[in-house]
Amino acid sequence: MRPTADTSFPAPPRSAGATRRLADLPGPPGRWIVGNLLDVDVGQLHRILYRWADRYGPLYRIRLMQHPMLVVADPVLIHDILRQRPESFMRQRSLRSAMLEVGVDGVFNAEGRDWRRQRALAMHALNTRHLRGFFPRLEAVTGRLQRRWQRAADEGTVLDIQRELMRFTVDVTTGLAFGHDLNTIEQDGDLIQTHMEKLFPALLRRTMAPYPYWRWFRLPADRALDRAMAEVRRLVTSMIEDCRRRVAADPVRRAHPTNFIEAMLAAQDDEARGFSDAEIFGNAITMLVAGEDTTANAISWMLHLMIDRPEVQTRLQAEVDAVLGHADRPLDHAAADGLDYIEAMAHEALRIKPVAPFLSLEPLVDAQIGDVHVPAGTGVLALNGYPGTTGAHFARPDDFRPERWMAAERAPADAHETRAFMPFGAGPRYCPGRHLAMLEIKMVMAMIARHFDVRRAPGTAPAEELFAFTLMPKDLFVQLVPRAPAGVTAAGG
Question: Which residues contact 65 (CB under 8 A, 6 or more apart)?
């Protein structure tokens, strides 16, 4: 557990007066040539950056080899930076290059005019109206997961819950983006998830590497990534071609696309907003990657935190019983909307365990952040998850207290700064998939609460944090215990 941040640091100046250079800032002492490179354990990078923010304040500098970087932990300054995207700040070049090299070239990685053109379609595909139309498929996928877990509960099987949830999120994403029923929940053997799980650690490793060695020679991990991405490309290409055939054969579908990829294909004839085949493929990969890890990790952290708070699980079950009546799980969008406590749990879990703990950016032109002059091209790490973990912005920041997000129940001691909570980013590039993520969270958590008690698997320790581009739980093993239906006692009366 990280100590509570030292809140004695003054708010960083934001005047246009005297400025500091990056070299004037405090920061961890570095070594000759390598700087702070040897101080960084990549799997614990978020913790290291957060501890340095505790020690050096809301603006500090680090150096990786010959590359100085500014680290920003102040929520007001982070909002200022994110509001200036994409005009003045872009994603860090090393990350963009690493993503492009493996074929992730969609709206997440786009900048400027390309981003605006792709963003409009992504927002349309993920808006509430489309999610309502997609709900029956989401409910069906949730039902499959329920049946799989019911068998595991009946047999006393220990589940690696994060891997289990990856099956769910992949099936949801391929259904929404491609209109394809991949159904990995009911399959065994070689799954797309086993290939995709190599991607995020590789992106992180390459982003942090002092030199792009893989362009000249491949290590075993790079060759494994090549093989995995070849399988992912094969599957994605196949699903795109299925969509292409459906659009070509159905004029109604061309006029009224039913999923994200169909909409991109239908727009290809539009000179103003048409998409190239490369952009369609890049966005398909992006949707699959972005929709798989983050939501699975968020639900996993909710379960991890709930296991140690039995009163939270009891209240969750009471809300679900009241909202669902006799239903097994939410049967329509309105029922999911009524699950306020689950939403509060999600916010609290994302605060304590921010799935995206920081953003890697750089200014396109010379910029001033607070009172610091930042030359164009300088790496900037915006610790958007950090403010939510500190006592400066949230009372008792280490406590898992979902009720702090429920206005009617919030105690004076639970006061917090809303702007310090940025799990989906902020500004123009606020995550377009946030509504889908929350809907998936509500569906899975409601299904779990309705049918199971969740316990840590006997003889296992609490999960550890592992940063692999997103913050994931390592070795989160649970057992699901069948729960008596609502209104039925253990004796059946």
Answer: 33, 34, 35, 37, 210
**Residue 268 counted as domain residue:** yes
Structural domain includes residue 15? no
Rounded Cα–Cα distance for residues 331 and 324 (Å): 8
Length of the chain: 493
For tokens 């200022």, what's the residue?
80
CATH number at residue 317: 1.10.630.10
User: Residue 459 above 60 pLDDT?
Assistant: yes
DSSP string, 97-125: HHHHHTT--STTT--HHHHHHHHHHHHHH
What sign for the dihedral angle of Cα 321, 326, 327, 331?
negative
DSSP string, 284-314: HHHHHHHHHHHHHHHHHHHHHHHHT-HHHHH
- Residue 116 confidence (pLDDT): 85
pLDDT tens for each residue of 229-275: 999 999 999 999 999 999 889 988 888 888 888 888 888 766 556 67
Task: With respect to residue 12, please indicate whether it lies within any of the assigned structural domains.
Answer: no
The pTM of the whole model exceeds 0.85: yes
Cα separation, 94 vs 379, whole angstroms: 9
Residues 6+ apart with CB under 8 A from 297: 162, 355, 470, 471, 472, 473
Answer yes or no: are the C-beta atoms of 109 and 290 closer than 8 Å. Answer: no
Residue with tokens 């097994």, as numbered in its chain: 328
* DSSP secondary structure letter of residue 268: G
Closest CA to 341 of 309, 305, 317: 317
Instruction: Report d(CA 250, CA 248) in Å as an integer.
Output: 6
Enclosing domain of residue 269:
22-482
Does residue 491 sit within a domain?
no
Gap between the Cα atoms of 103 and 478, Å rounded: 35
The 10 Å CB-count burial string (b at 16+, else e) for 257-290 is: bbbbbbbbbbbbeeeeeebeeebbbbbbbbbbbb
Q: What does the pLDDT look like over 86-140, one tens digit per residue?
A: 999 999 988 889 888 888 778 888 888 888 888 887 887 778 888 888 999 999 9
152 and 163 Cβ atoms separated by less than 8 Å: no
DSSP 190: S
How far is residue 440 from each of residues 135, 165, 173, 207, measured CA to CA in Å? Answer: 10, 10, 10, 30
SS3 call for 67:
strand
Q: How many domains does the chain have?
A: 1
| Of 131-140, 143-152, 412-421, 440-449, minimum mean pLDDT range | 412-421
Provide CB contacts within 8 A for 322, sequence distance 6+.
none
Taking only Cα atoms into account, the Rg of the chain, rounded to an integer number of angstroms, comes to: 23
